[in-house]
Amino acid sequence: MGLFFISPWLIGFLLFTLGPIIFSFYLSFTDYQVIAAPKWIGIENYRELIKSDPLFWKSLYNTLYYVAFRIPTGILTALSLAILLNRKLKGVTIFRSLFYFPSLISGVVLSVIWLWILAPEFGLLNMVLSFFKLKGPLWLTDPAWAKLAFVIMALWSVGPQMIIFLAGLQDIPEQLYESAHIDGTNWWQDIRYITLPLLTPSIFYNIVVLVIGAFQVFTQAFIMTNGGPVDSTLFYVLYLYNNGFRYFKMGYASSMAWILFIIIFCLTLIQFRFSSWVHYER
Amino acid sequence: MKRAVFLGISVLLMCSILVSFVFAKETITFWVPATGEVYKVYKEAVDMFNAKSKNFQVEAVSIPDMERKLLVAVAGGAPPDVAVHWNPMALREWIDRDSILPLTPFIKEEKFDTSKYVPACLEQATFYGQIWGLPLTSSLKPMFYWNKDLFKEVGLNPNLGPKTWKDLLTYSDKLTIKKDGKIERLGFTPLWGHIANGAETLVWFVQSGVKPVSDDGNKITINTEKAVDVLQFIADLANRYGREAYQAFSSQFGSGLNDPFLTGRLAMAGGSTPMAVRGVLYYKPDFKLGYSLMPSPTGKELVVFTQGSSMIIPKGSKHPKEAWEFIKWYSGPQQTHLSAKIGYNSGNILALRKTADVISSKLVLNYYKYVVNIPQTPAQGVFFDEIVRARNAVIYGQMTAKQALDSLVQKVQSEIDKILASQKK
C-alpha cells in the first residue's frame, strides 16, 4: 500500500533521474554523436581523456583551483555572517533576508551584474580597491585573476550556507555562554570554545555540500567568459558541455561526467572518513 | 428525459469532434530561431502563407536555443516538420550524421528553378551532389564598416575606407586616442565584431592565399609559412596598442546601446550585413556608415564569407511534402519582410532586389559575387574553437604563431580522422 502511495515519485525518479543516470553510464562507453545510434567502443573515451586530452587536465586543474579557494572563503563568509546575525537585535530578520536575497538571483542576471562590477576601468570592485590605493587587476580578462573573480562572485550566494549556520547557532544553549561569561571569557574565546565545537555538524554539512556544488561550476563561465581568456576559466563542466553539445561528442561528455562523479564521490568519502573533528550532541 | 438530453449532447459533441478531425487542415510545425520582436516578423510571413494555403497550416514555434533543441529533437525522433538551420557553415556535420532530408528529389521532380538564390548560399547547402537546404537569409560577413564622422574628424576622406593591410594600420593609428596608457578611442581591433569569430577569422588567411582545408574538407592545411605570418599579423594587430590597455578598454564593450562601434569608441569594425540594419537603424539612425569589403594584403584580394540561414527538413519530419511546399514559398521572391524589418537580407536575389533600399540588401547585392566558400570539415565546431584558441594563445604570448597553428592542425586533424573512421563502418 505504501508503495502505491509513493509510486508517482518512484516512477518519476526512475524515468527522469535513475534511468538517465544509468543510460549515461552506458553512453560513456560508446561513440555517441547524438544524431546517430551509439557505437560501443569500450573504455576508449576514458583512455583518450586521460592520455591524450590536455584540455581535460586543464579544465580539471581550473576546477580544483576554484574549489580550493571557494570552500574556505565560502564557509568563513557564511559563518561570520551567521554569527553576526545571531543577535536579538531589532530588525535582524530584515538583514538576514537581505543577505539571503542575492542567492535567489538567476545565473544570467548575476552574470550581467557582475560583468559591470568586475569591469577593470569603471567597475565597482576596482573603484573600491582604488579607495585603498590598490590598483585592481583586469579580473575576467586576466588569465591570472579570472578564476578568483569567479570565487568572489560565488560569495554572492552565501545565503543557504548562512541559514544552515544560523539554525546550528540557535541550537546552542544560552546557558553555556552565560556560565562561560561568569568565568570571564571574551567574544573570541566564546567562539573558539563554545560556538565552533558545537557548530561542527553544520560546518561539516556545509563543506560537503559546497564541495559537491563547487565542482559543478558552469553557468557564469558559460555566459561571461566562455572558458577564456586562454582557457583560464575553462571549468570541467563547461568543457563537458562543449564536447557534448558543440562537438557532437556525447559519449565523450558522458565519460567526463562519470569521472567527475567518481572524483566528487571519493572526496565526499574522504571527508566522512576524516570527520572525527565533528562533535555530535547526544 | 434527462438521459435523452445527455445522450443527445454527447453524440453531438462526438460528431463535432469527428467532423473537426475530418475537415481540419493538417498543421505542420516550423521552428524559428528567434524570440520576441524578431520572432514576430518571422510569424508575420507565416501568417501570410497560412492565409493563402489550401491544404495545410504552418505553426511557427519560437525556439531560442535552436542549436541544442534541434539536435535533441532529431535524436529523440520528434523533430519539427521544417526548421531554420542557423549555422550553414556547419551543415556538413548534420548531413554526415544523417539528420537532414535532401531536397534534391523534390527539386528534380518539380524541375524547381534554383537559379534565383544567391549562388554562394546555395553552394553552402550543397554536399555530395545534393541540395540540403534552400537559402533563407544571406548574411555576408565580415563586412568592413567605419564611422564617417570620426574619419572626417581626423582628416581622412570619409568615403574612402582602407584598402590594404598597411592602410588599415595607418588609419587605425590616426583614429586611436591613447592618454596616460589608457585607450580612449580605438581605430580597429580584430577581436570585436563578427571578424573575431573562429569562422570569420579565416578571412585574413584566405585573403593571403592560404588554403585552410583541402577541397574535400577532410584535411586541415592551415599551418603553412604564409599562415604563420597571417596569424602573427592578427596577433600583432590585436596587441598594437597594448594588450592590457585593450583589455581594460574592451571590458566596457557591450551590445545595443553599449555597442562600441555605434557609440564611437571603435572607429572601424568587421561585422555582418544585418549589423548595418539592426545596429545602426535601431539604435543610431543618424549614424553615417561607411562600408566596403575587409582590407586585404595588397587591396586586390576581395574576399567575404556568407553565413545566412537555410530552411531544412529534419530527418523524421512527419510532413516532408508539406514542409517542401512551405520552404519553396518562405524562401521565395516575396521573402522581403525579414530584410525590411530586421535586416536579415534574403537569400533570394529577386527578394533582395525588391528590398534594395534596405542597406543590408544593398550590401549583399553589391558583394555576393566575392563570396568564397571554404570546404566544410566534419568537425567545424572543434575547428572554429581551435582557431580562436590558437589566436588567443599567440596574443597572450603563450605560444608562437607556428606552435599555435601546428597544435591546431594536430588537434583538429585527429578529430576529423576519428569522425571519418567512425562513419566508415
Protein described:
The complex is a heterodimer of chains A (282) and B (425). In chain A, 29% of the residues are buried. Chain A is globular and about 75 Å long. Chain A has a single domain (51-273), classed as MetI-like fold (Orthogonal Bundle), CATH 1.10.3720.10. Chain A contains 13 helices and 2 strands, in the order H-E-E-H-H-H-H-H-H-H-H-H-H-H-H. Chain A has 282 residues and is an all-alpha fold. The model of chain A has no long low-confidence stretch (mean pLDDT 91). Chain A has a two-stranded antiparallel ribbon with strand order 1-2. Chain B is an alpha+beta fold and 425 residues long. Chain B folds into 2 domains: 27-139 and 308-370, D-Maltodextrin-Binding Protein, domain 2 (3-Layer(aba) Sandwich); 141-305 and 377-424, D-Maltodextrin-Binding Protein, domain 2 (3-Layer(aba) Sandwich). Chain B is built from 18 helices and 15 strands. Chain B has helices at residues 2-23, 36-52, 66-75, 91-96, 104-110, 119-124, 148-153, 165-175, 198-207, 225-238, 243-250, 273-283, 320-330, 337-342, 349-354, 359-367, 380-395, 401-424, and strands at residues 26-32, 56-62, 82-85, 100-101, 126-127, 130-131, 134-135, 140-141, 143-147, 177-179, 182-185, 268-271, 289-293, 305-306, 310-314. In chain B, strands 1, 2, 3, 4, 7 and 15 form a 6-stranded mixed sheet that branches. A 3-stranded antiparallel sheet of chain B has the order 12-9-13. Chain B has a two-stranded antiparallel ribbon with strand order 5-6. The longest helix of chain B has 24 residues, at 401-424. The model of chain B has no long low-confidence stretch (mean pLDDT 90). The interface between A and B is medium-sized, with 26 and 33 residues.
